[in-house]
Specification:
This protein is an alpha/beta fold and 305 residues long. The chain has helices at residues 25-38, 50-58, 86-100, 121-133, 147-154, 177-184, 205-209, 227-243, 249-258, 273-279, 289-303, and strands at residues 2-3, 42-44, 65-70, 72-74, 80-82, 105-110, 137-143, 161-163, 187-191, 265-267. It is built from eleven helices and ten strands. Strand 8, helix 6 and strand 9 (187-191) form a beta-alpha-beta unit.
């Protein structure tokens, strides 16, 4: 689900979210359905897109925009790798079209760039540009790219959008990437604005300690001491700000992200209908300059190493 009041070159464009273990399908599909019911124009689907494919098939309203991604592959044993060959990208595209039962993908994204010093950007981007020319996709974008990598892609074809990670406690893109995208008119829709659940207000020390080994957050330093305690203190400040508006800490975290003029939108995940309902209004929350300063002061204390 993409939230945000502004519109970029392709509207409010969502991108990838941190991958976690799949929830129960019925509850997840209900969450997607609730998202479709309120935000009728945008549906983000991963390469498999099981729940979203079913929700889209069952949806009886106006067709939403469909966004998905390529180059990150995995097999039945859980092995994950990057594949930038034209044949692989085309196969992924055809598979997505078939699963989603659409003739055109509205936004097709290059999920990850190659590792530093490795080839692949130019060949992959040429393939995405060809898919656009052939009418299989309407817009093409990138995710997790640096400004330099975006510039390499732009030499071949225009980059419609970028999907980077961005939150109160993860701000490196402010230095170079956001200014460049704003200058170039590239839509930016961030992912993980609630720091993979850390800033929702629901995370506790007990929950963090109980995260299973196959949950990537169990290995994330932000979910472990000494950072965890500082992050939870930040959440309490978000809770105080949110209480003035009748909003949750997570909604405040999303609203803070959307305050940046370069942001087109923010991607938020929902495992069920209740979670979806809890964050759908975040794009409507406008923080004051004083509240932004208050939040950033607390964030500076939380991120001090």
């Amino acid at each position: 689900m993409a939230l945000g009041p502004s519109a970029g070159r392709a509207g409010n464009l969502p991108g990838p979210a941190g991958r976690r273990r799949f929830p129960r399908r019925d509850s997840s599909r209900a969450g997607v359905g609730r998202q479709l019911d309120r935000y009728r124009r945008r549906l983000r689907a991963g390469p498999l897109g099981r729940n979203r494919s079913r929700a889209l098939k069952e949806w009886r309203g106006p067709r939403p925009h469909v966004f998905t991604k390529c180059v990150l592959r995995w097999n039945e044993k859980g092995k994950i790798w990057k594949e930038f060959s034209p044949d692989s990208i085309r196969r992924e595209c055809e598979d997505s079209l078939r699963r989603l039962q659409v003739e055109t993908i509205d936004l097709y994204q290059m999920h990850w760039p190659p590792d530093e010093g490795e080839p692949g950007i130019e060949e992959a981007w040429q393939t995405l540009a060809a898919l656009k020319t052939e009418g299989k996709v309407r817009w093409i974008g990138v995710s997790n790219f640096s400004a330099g990598q975006i510039k390499r892609a732009e030499k071949i074809a225009s980059v419609t959008s970028l999907q980077p990670p961005y939150s109160i406690i993860r701000r490196p893109i402010e230095a170079e990437i956001l200014p460049y995208c704003e200058k170039q008119g590239i839509a930016v829709t961030s992912y993980a604005p609630m720091a993979s659940g850390l800033l929702t207000g629901a995370m506790t020390r007990e929950r963090a300690a109980a995260l299973p080994p196959d949950d990537f957050r169990s290995r994330n330093p932000e979910f472990r001491e000494p950072r965890l305690s500082k992050n939870l203190e930040l959440v309490e400040r978000l809770r105080q700000v949110g209480a003035r508006h009748g909003r949750t800490p997570g909604e405040v975290a999303i609203a803070w992200t959307l305050r940046h003029p370069a942001l087109t939108g923010a991607i938020v995940g929902a495992r069920n209908a209740k979670q979806a309902e809890g964050v759908m209004r975040a794009g409507e929350l406008k923080l004051t300059a004083e509240e932004i300063a208050e939040i950033e002061g607390a964030a500076a204390a939380a991120t001090a190493r």
